[in-house]
């Protein structure tokens, strides 16, 4: 980041010296109040906050659900900003609640489940009990990489296909890079690079939008390109574009290989220049949903994209300012009453209006735990960039 500091200072100056559109302290004060209520309504650490059921009641899940790490991760975000011991204690408790998933070899989602809580917790506290749990988890995750296919398997089965890989899987690689550095085992690094290269090759269309699911044959050739959560096989499911953008930004951070930076920039440009991206920059759940503008927005995609664009903006280039300003706009929109809940409402989640799985009519226009996680992360990144620009 240091290398780009003069550049960041230059393009942040209108923001740094003008009025910030977002009051980070105020947003974290609200998040703390809302999540204090969430902690109160969730005394049992086997029931993880996830979303809202169609009848309006809280939808909780168990630790083996792919989202189990986000609540603990969000508590770490609140601790990072507030530095208050009460948040550290809560974060530790909800982090350890996911520990048994380190042995779970039946899912590719261990990056989300383990690295969001344990990774943030270790970064902030250096708790020596966390790395062994993370490293066991990284080994479990890497059992899903078949070198003959060259990608980490996402689900065990999708329709008639036995090796489906979803774009979301790019989000696991940050965890594996950490594992490579911590253990000295280069395999974690190598398999991440192979997975990312095959994802560029097979998941992306010429316009840099992404398929959701690529189904592989045992020899690594592509059997089919599909969607599960998007509108259509050929559509651009909004959260999938966000996962890819975030994932390739991390690839550049970890490898410094320019091809990943180019990929992230192309994805960002597809997203930001899309004619169906609304003025508030929070996308519809699918860029090609059939009834736009009468389709649900996906606040989670907006939050993930905002966070990713803040990082991408630090890597310079002619669009850095555009990425930064778009990330701020997204954060501003999410912090407005259009998306942010009132205290004590929304089953104590921070953000409203996400879409989990529209084709299955699941989590449509509801709060979802990962929208809050990436929103808080984006707030932290915004705060860090502004502080750097001022200092
Ligand atoms: N990883 C699943 C999703 O983004 O909904």
TrEMBL record:
> By its UniProt entry, which Gene3D superfamilies does this protein fall under?
1.50.10.10
Signal peptide interval: 1-18
The catalytic site is made up of: 109, 168
Q: Which InterPro entries match?
A: 6-hairpin_glycosidase_sf (IPR008928), 6hp_glycosidase-like_sf (IPR012341), Glyco_hydro_88 (IPR010905), UG_Glycosaminoglycan_Hydrolase (IPR052369)
List GO BP terms, alphabetically.
polysaccharide catabolic process
**Which residues of the sequence carry a binding annotation for substrate?**
109, 168, 227, 239, 243
Q: What protein family does this chain belong to?
A: Belongs to the glycosyl hydrolase 88 family.
Q: What is this protein called?
A: Glycosyl Hydrolase Family 88
């Amino acid at each position: 980041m240091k290398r780009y500091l003069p550049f960041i200072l230059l393009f942040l100056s209108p923001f740094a010296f003008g009025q910030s559109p977002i009051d980070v302290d105020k947003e974290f004060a609200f998040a703390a109040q809302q999540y204090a209520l969430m902690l109160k309504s969730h005394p049992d650490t086997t029931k993880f906050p996830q979303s809202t059921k169609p009848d309006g009641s809280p939808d909780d899940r168990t630790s083996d659900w792919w989202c189990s790490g986000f609540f603990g991760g969000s508590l770490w975000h609140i601790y990072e900003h507030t530095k208050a011991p009460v948040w550290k204690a809560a974060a530790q408790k909800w982090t350890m609640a996911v520990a048994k998933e380190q042995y779970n070899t039946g899912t590719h989602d261990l990056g989300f489940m383990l690295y969001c809580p344990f990774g943030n917790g270790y970064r902030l506290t250096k708790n020596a009990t966390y790395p062994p749990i993370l490293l066991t988890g990284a080994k479990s995750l890497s059992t899903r990489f078949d070198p003959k296919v060259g990608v980490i398997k996402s689900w065990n089965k999708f329709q008639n296909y036995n090796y489906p890989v979803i774009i979301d899987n790019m989000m696991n690689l940050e965890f594996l890079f950490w594992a490579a550095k911590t253990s000295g085992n280069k395999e974690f690094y190598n398999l991440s690079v192979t997975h990312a290269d095959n994802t560029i090759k097979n998941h992306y269309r010429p316009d840099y939008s992404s398929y959701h699911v690529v189904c592989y044959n045992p020899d690594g050739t592509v059997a089919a390109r599909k969607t599960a959560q998007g509108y259509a096989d050929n559509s651009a499911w909004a959260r999938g574009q966000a996962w890819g953008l975030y994932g390739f930004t991390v690839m550049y951070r970890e490898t410094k290989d320019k091809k990943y930076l180019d990929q992230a920039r192309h994805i960002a440009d597809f997203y930001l220049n899309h004619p169906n991206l609304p003025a508030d920059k929070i996308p519809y759940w699918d860029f090609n949903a059939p009834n736009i503008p009468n389709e649900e927005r996906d606040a989670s995609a907006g939050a993930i994209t905002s966070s990713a664009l803040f990082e991408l903006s630090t890597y310079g280039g002619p669009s850095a300012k555009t990425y930064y300003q778009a990330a701020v706009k997204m954060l501003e929109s999410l912090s407005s009453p259009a998306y942010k809940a009132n205290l004590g409402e929304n089953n104590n989640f921070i953000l409203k209006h996400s879409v989990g799985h529209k084709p299955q009519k699941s989590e449509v226009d509801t709060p979802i735990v990962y929208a809050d996680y990436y929103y808080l992360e984006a707030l932290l990144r915004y705060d860090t960039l502004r502080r750097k620009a001022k200092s």
